[in-house]
């Protein structure tokens, strides 16, 4: 790997107009090679999160090979990327499987497995069946733990997650443009009951804001983070308060609404169904509408009313979720539509920008706490559950250091060991 390969690869995040990571690299002014082993990235402004951005979108491939095959062909069957990892890619069948074998040029620790097979499944039930039959040795990134419980010869893996299931209210469309309606919905939602029903083994957490509390770990000590989160608005399940809020609104007798959720989001669909049952207790008739992949495109932009959505971050910082769900640039149009609540608050916008440029962690924590306090008082979103990162592994193996980040961004297979 050369410095030229690094400059070429990182530069693709900027010059490729179709790159899904392009928005993350907008603060980059230049990427140059100082010498054969040093690359310099200059930013347009200070950034507290840029190291995390490089960590998840800084993959390096061989420049000569990429230019020879053409960038449009990169990653398609027959035109695989050439990297430097411990295994080399032998074959890739879209939506089916990947085959890997030891890379003879790898200079790091000897890979424990000569060959690796990664299988893709359309449903979690099919993945669990393959694990039960012995066709695969492990399963990861599932959200329905009950399906994987009690499979003979396996062990459960768990770690803090980086995703959250949110209730979303479109603040620009009635009746959800009424803050009292939004407060009523939150008070009427039995979050603890929902978690107990969907995750009886304690495989999800209840969080006080729009992201898992684990994402604050780099901003302060546990006690400092807990003190900050304790200042955020609280809405414990209380039907009497929910009815009082609804009475203050323009819809004191309730209303009818869809609850939109992506069909492929199995835990989201279940959360939406429980939410509909909760809202019925205050006179809100909610009908769950499961959207297909084709319908989802329009829904993610301007058509959402009340919705349930699962969202996550690619780097371990609260900004990873704030930059999509509450950022003004994500309101549609002209943004990408991830701010489905169409939420806009001038003070929040100011604090969000300032928190990115603030390199002092305690000051960032204070800023983000103030920002989330405003969001919590206006409730464009409300957290329903934050699933843990879950995995199941054959008892023949152990996997030290299992976490969301290692399983997503590192060569985790290097850590798989025989149990005996």
Give the N-to-C terminal Cα separation: 36 Å
Q: Which structural class should the secondary elements be placed in?
A: alpha+beta
Q: Averaged pLDDT, please? A: 92
- Strand residue percentage: 15-25%
Helices, by number, come to: 15
Biggest sheet statistics: 6 strands, mixed
The backbone outline, from C-alpha atoms, is: globular
Spatial arrangement of strands, main beta sheet: 9-13-8-12-10-11
| Uncertain regions spanning at least 5 consecutive residues | none
Computed CA radius of gyration, to the nearest angstrom: 23 Å
**Portion of residues in helices?**
25-40%
For the structure shown, list the relevant keywords.
three-stranded antiparallel sheet; 420 residues; globular; six-stranded mixed sheet; 16 strands; alpha+beta; 15 helices
Explain what the structure shows:
By secondary structure, the chain is α+β, with helices and mostly antiparallel strands. Helix content is 35%, strand content 21%. It contains 15 helices and 16 strands. The protein has helices at residues 3-15, 50-57, 63-69, 124-133, 145-148, 179-187, 191-198, 222-230, 239-248, 266-280, 293-303, 319-325, 346-357, 361-378, 404-409; strands at 28-35, 38-43, 87-93, 97-102, 115-119, 138-140, 154-159, 163-169, 204-205, 255-262, 284-291, 306-312, 381-387, 389-394, 397-398, 417-418. A 6-stranded mixed sheet has the order 9-13-8-12-10-11. A hairpin with a 3-residue loop joins strand 3 (87-93) and strand 4. The radius of gyration is 23 Å and the shape is globular. The two termini are 36 Å apart.
């Amino acid at each position: 790997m050369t410095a030229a390969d690094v400059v070429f690869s990182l530069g693709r995040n900027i010059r490729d107009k179709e790159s899904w990571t392009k928005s993350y690299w907008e603060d980059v002014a230049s990427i140059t090679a100082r010498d054969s082993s040093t690359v310099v990235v200059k930013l347009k402004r200070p950034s507290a999160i840029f190291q995390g951005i490089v960590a998840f979108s800084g993959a390096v491939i061989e420049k000569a090979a990429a230019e020879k095959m053409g960038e449009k062909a990169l990653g398609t069957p027959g035109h695989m990327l050439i990297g430097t990892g411990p295994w080399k890619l032998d074959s890739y069948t879209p939506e089916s499987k990947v085959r890997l074998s030891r890379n003879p040029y790898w200079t790091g620790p000897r890979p424990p497995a000569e060959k690796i097979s990664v299988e893709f499944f359309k449903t979690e039930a099919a993945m669990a069946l393959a694990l039960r039959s012995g066709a695969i040795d492990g399963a990861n990134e599932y959200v329905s733990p009950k399906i994987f419980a009690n499979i003979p010869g396996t062990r459960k893996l768990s770690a803090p997650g980086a995703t959250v299931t949110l209730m979303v209210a479109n603040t620009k469309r009635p009746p959800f443009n009424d803050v009292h309606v939004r407060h009523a919905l939150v008070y009427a939602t039995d979050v603890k009951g929902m978690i107990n029903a969907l995750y009886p083994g304690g495989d999800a957490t209840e969080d006080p804001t729009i992201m898992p509390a684990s994402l604050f770990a780099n901003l302060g000590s546990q006690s400092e983070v807990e003190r900050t989160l304790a200042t955020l608005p609280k809405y414990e399940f209380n039907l009497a308060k929910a009815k009082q809020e609804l009475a203050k609104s323009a819809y004191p007798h309730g209303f009818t609404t869809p609850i939109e959720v992506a069909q492929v989001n199995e835990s989201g669909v279940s959360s939406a169904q429980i939410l509909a049952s909760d809202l019925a207790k205050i006179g809100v008739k909610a009908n769950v509408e499961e959207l297909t992949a084709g319908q989802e495109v329009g829904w993610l932009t301007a058509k959402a009313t009340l919705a349930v959505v699962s969202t996550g971050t690619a780097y371990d910082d609260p900004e990873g979720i704030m930059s999509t769900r509450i950022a003004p640039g994500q309101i549609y149009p002209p943004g990408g539509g991830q701010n489905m609540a169409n939420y806009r608050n001038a003070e929040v916008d100011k604090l969000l920008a300032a928190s990115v440029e603030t390199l002092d962690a305690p000051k960032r924590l204070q800023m983000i706490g103030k920002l989330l306090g405003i969001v919590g008082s206006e409730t464009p979103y409300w957290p329903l559950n934050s699933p843990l990162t879950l995995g199941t592994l054959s008892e023949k193996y152990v996997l030290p250091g299992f976490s969301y980040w290692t399983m997503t961004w590192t060569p985790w297979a290097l850590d798989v060991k025989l149990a005996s």
